[in-house]
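@channel sequence for tomorrow's demo:
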Amino acid sequence: MQYRLLGNSGLRVSEAALGAMTFGDDWGFGSSKEEARKVYDAFREAGGNFIDTANIYTNGTSETFLGEFMQGHRQSVVMATKYSNAMPGTDPNAAGNHRKNMVQAVEASLKRLGTDYIDLYWVHIWDQITPVEEVMRGLDDLVRAGKILYVGISDAPAWWIAQANTLAELRGWSSFIGLQLEYSLIERTVERELIPMAKALNLGVTAWGPLSGGVLTGKYHGQGTSEAGRMHSDMLKGLMPEQNRADRVVAAVKAVSDETSRSMGQVSLAWLRHRAVPVIPILGARKLSQLQDNLASFDLTLSADQLQTLEQASQIEPGFPYSMYTKDLARSVAYGGMRDRILAENLK
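structure tokens (generated this afternoon):
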């Protein structure tokens, strides 16, 4: 396992993170404690040090398991957890980005994890109503108190994240060093705004759903027997353009898989290493065999032709205003007719 600095920080994290959403079977699926321990140990033995969970995962069982698993080597683990979400109930302050929920959630997570600090604390999802000043000042207070070391943002729009980090830098508060988002060959719309923002602000990118819930492993395509496969097909009925694109992507992944004699999942994960910014996939595995297959992707190198095959099948429309920038008129007048005289490295 190789390591990289996470965003604009000196924190060294493994090139993959272990997602612990499946640790525990409280939600009717997931891993038993015994199987979760096998997955955790295998990830650590491979050199992985970056663990990702959340206070809501399996009703807190995920954090409790990890607290036990880390005993004796807590200092060598980069422990990341999240706050903001809560199961439906009657308390209006049980969820959200606000300070009250933030403080209550971090204390509960510290207790379940059996530690006195959290390495990376994620805002799990933008709640669209809490003032940005309250979020960033609250997180900075937790850093100053030593309860968390770094902060990150998950599932939020690019404009809000840029606003939050600009404000934090101006006020001398802790700013986000990491960005968590859905990113895969199926889901590439993040390349319109979020990925360019991450590159510009030097945010470390972690990707959840890198296998699109199993779609990119091929298990829902061409089988026609599993209930999950039928559900996936039903969800896409009436969405033919997206269904057609998904089918093209899976077919391309299958072609590269056959050519390399590697699993479709390994091909899909390897593709993420060739993005515009370094991407750390979050590997979620219910079984040890799944994790082992995912880890094998890190010694798979894709050729230029193979990358082109995947690129052509999965490409998306850039949307406005980026689509306008490719038009001859815009390219001409935006540079006064001198675009071809400007050094290429200065152009986006």
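heads up for whoever presents: Residues 324-348 form one domain.
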